[in-house]
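Field reference: sequence -> structure
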Amino acid sequence: MPRPTCKKRIGFQPKAVFFKPAGIPLGLVQEIVIGHDEVEAMRLKNLLGYPQEEAASQMGVSQPTFHRLINAAHQKITDAIINGKALRIDGGNVTVHEGMVGPCRWTKRWNQGCASAEAIASSPIEEGKQTQGGTPMKIAITSADGTLDGMVDERFGRTKKIIIFDTETNTHETIDNTTNMNAAQGAGIQTAQNVVQTGARTVISGHLGPNAFRVVSGAGVEVFTVSGMTVRQALEAHKNGKLNKLAGADVEGHW
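Structure field:
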């Protein structure tokens, strides 16, 4: 008898689980089934930009298993697109971690999930959540020296300090980013993951590379760019709607 496989951890169950080509009757479309574990592998690797080792750890699987999952997912999606097949998300030997419900604002930590759009609309405002109308949120600003009167560091991944400003209490904390500043590679991804962990819903910096931007935008974080401003000036400009919002990475990787 084969040994039973361990359940894989997943962080959400998608609301939409069936996709089909437009204009073709359902009865004429061949269906492909993609597992919840395969979808989770894509979310961690492709959407949030996690390195394979960390993504595998999040799911509680080995790297070879994670590699097989994401390869299988890519193959199935490619087959569906190229050959006009329907795609159904179903099955997989998985366990949904408590507290992880919807794919709206993910963090790296398993105990900080997110909710569906309906749940967000009906729930009280939580600390660190960005909403409309001037309600409280946390803003992450890259900083050269960790003070409000110091300059905004125009490097994101290799910034020396990150200031997390709470708009509800007008208080801030400073996070040391020296380790990532001196990293040989992966500085942008790791800094982005650290920012997401804080619960910040907005980033103010100078420039973001593609990997860093993919991680923060995948977690629902907005990015605004500044140049030649102090942190205090940048916060005031953001409050008055005078900062430019980045729609994508504006520098190459390893900047």
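Note: The two ends are 53 Å apart (CA to CA).
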